[in-house]
């Protein structure tokens, strides 16, 4: 991630934006007052964030800004429509798998850093973020705008991150019901795998003319595949060294498996286009998964995301569609 440079000039602009937001809030008409009342009308509650910091938040937040893929994903799964969000990795909008759901979210940050002025102008009553984004470095500045909750650490289990986000939104019971339904669907899908039970599944992202391994470890991809009883190729076991691990075209055979889940940073349409490109690469057509027509084009933005309930559900859906009998 790029470093965040907050110059004195930028800080002054931020302070002005915050002051302007407060002035707008105080001078707005009845509709503005009601829209921006947030949880104030319903009181406040105190939650403890992922670093042990106690944060006073609205009991019924209405103007929520989410500054990471997992917090946006979780908020949407819990029925919230954030007013501000972070752009997806390598994208100008929110991650493409969330684009149709996040219809009201203005882009106010990148994975590297937030735009504090834009956030202040939205007059949020709650800001959610985690350690997957650079916004964590300026959480003090964010708390000058609105209550900001760090929902999870970098390697936190996505299910725990969902519950933490739900706690901040006062929706824990809904999150627990969501997880109960998901785990039931995992069990039923596992029972339906038939001959693909314990299949070796390779997960790669095609970029810049070559493959990168993704979904290693215990994130939303690795944990879902493991829960389904699916195995991974030797070089896709263990924790990942980063967001992805490039594979040399000279070692293309290491991405082979019974099934190859193939995508890009964007949607399935982008994945189909990339697959045509990959088929022109020497030895790609010799992979067993390719010869057996076991290449599954996936919703890559979800598989490659930092995680969340909707992303995990997408992984489950893609596996079920391709492997279940």
The H-and-E topology, N to C, reads as HHEEEHEEHEHEHHEEHEEHHEHH
Q: What is the CATH top level name of the largest domain?
A: Alpha Beta
Low-pLDDT runs of 5+ residues are 1-41
| Percent of residues in β-strands | 5-15%
What number is the mean pLDDT? 89
Sum up the structure in keywords.
37% helix, Rossmann fold, 325 residues, disordered N terminus, transport, alpha/beta, ABC_transptr_periplasmic_BD, single chain, 12 helices, globular, 5-stranded mixed beta sheet, signal, 3-stranded parallel beta sheet
What does this structure look like?
With 325 residues, the protein is α/β, with parallel strands linked by helices. The protein has 2 domains: 8-170, Rossmann fold (3-Layer(aba) Sandwich); 193-323, Nitrogenase molybdenum iron protein domain (Rossmann fold). Helices cover 37% and strands 15% of the residues. The chain has helices at residues 8-27, 30-35, 69-77, 116-121, 139-142, 158-169, 172-191, 220-227, 268-278, 288-291, 300-303, 309-323; strands at residues 44-48, 54-58, 64-66, 84-86, 106-109, 126-129, 148-150, 201-207, 210-213, 245-246, 259-263, 295-297. Strands 10-9-8-11-12 form a 5-stranded mixed beta sheet. Strands 3-6-7 form a 3-stranded parallel beta sheet. Strand 1 and strand 2 (54-58) form a beta hairpin. Helix 3 crosses helix 6 (158-169), helix 7 (172-191) packs parallel to helix 12 and helix 8 packs across helix 12 (309-323). The two termini are 42 Å apart. 45% of the residues are buried. Belongs to the bacterial solute-binding protein 8 family. Its main location: other. One of its GO terms (cellular component) is outer membrane-bounded periplasmic space.
